[in-house]
Every structure is written in C-alpha cells, then in structure tokens.
C-alpha cells in the first residue's frame, strides 16, 4: 500500500515543516527558511580565513571546524527561540486555564489569573523542558568534542608544517562521554 500524503497546495504547505523541529540533527549546513545560505558562507569563509589553511588536508579540516561550529551556534539560537516561544504562550495558556476554571469549576477569571500564577509560569518557562535541554546538551557536547579534536588536529598539522615542536601534553583530548 502506497503513502497518500497531502494533495492540495494548502495541505502541502501545512505539513511542509513537520520534519523540521529544531534542525539540530540536520546534515544540511543551512536549513532553508530558518537560516541564510549567505550567512553560512560568510561564517565558513571567516573560519577558513582564520586558520589560513595550506593544502587539501588543512582546507578540509578548516571546513570541518566551520561545519561543527555552525550547528553549535544553531543550538544556542534554538534555546533562545524556545524560551521566547514558551514565554509568548503564557497569555494564551492563562486565558485557556481561566476559561476552563470559570466554565467548569465556577472560579472567576480574576482569581485564576494572578500575578503569583504569572510569575510561576514565567519562572517555569525560562528554559525549555528538561528532556529538550538534555537532548540539546548531549548534542552540543558531541559537537564540542568533535570541534576540539578537529581544531587540535588542524593546529598540530599546521605547527608541524611550520617546523614547530608540539608538546604531547598539549594534545591530550578528553573525549569520553559522561556516564548515563
């Protein structure tokens, strides 16, 4: 049996971003409609210029550094956007709860919506949910470890090319994953 999917233009538009929740695991360097390809290119070019790579290997490692740092920035933007979204929802959520309290429980709206309840909702929504934050922290940690390893390798290759001595102590990377 084949998949049917949306048929009309309106239905297709409505489901177009179903698979894009936060873009944190996207393989694409740029998520269309959420990021600018021009900004990515400027970012990548700036990172590559910083390392001033010589040769194919150094250029590839510099590109890899950029491709690891870009989604790290995306994760920080996601956290900020989720916090703003959570805070923006407070008025609607309070109105819904107050309407229910008024209709179903006979509690007047002015008793349902108090400054204490607003303050409580704001404090609970200053960060994304615990599960979402844990996923982002694991993802950021993974990217950070990869960035550190790539950065150190690129710097070591460049130092060797320049005839500089590399101390083995400066090359120790701790990349173990934290215990569950």
Principal-axes geometry comes out as elongated
* N-to-C CA distance: 41 Å
How are helices and strands ordered from N to C?
A: HHHHHHH
Return the average pLDDT rounded to an integer.
Answer: 78
Q: Say how many strands there are.
A: 0
Structure annotation, total helices = 7
Low-confidence stretches: 14-24
Structure explained in plain terms:
With 180 residues, the chain is mostly helical. Among the domains are: 37-86 and 127-164; 90-124, no CATH class. Helices cover 66% and strands 0% of the residues. The protein is built from seven helices and no strands. α2 (37-51) crosses α3 (55-88) and α3 (55-88) packs antiparallel against α7 (130-161). It is elongated, with a radius of gyration of 24 Å. The two termini are 41 Å apart.
Features:
180 residues, 66% helix
Please write out the topology:
Elements: H1 9-15, H2 37-51, H3 55-88, H4 90-105, H5 109-112, H6 115-124, H7 130-161
Helix pairs in contact: 2-3, 3-7
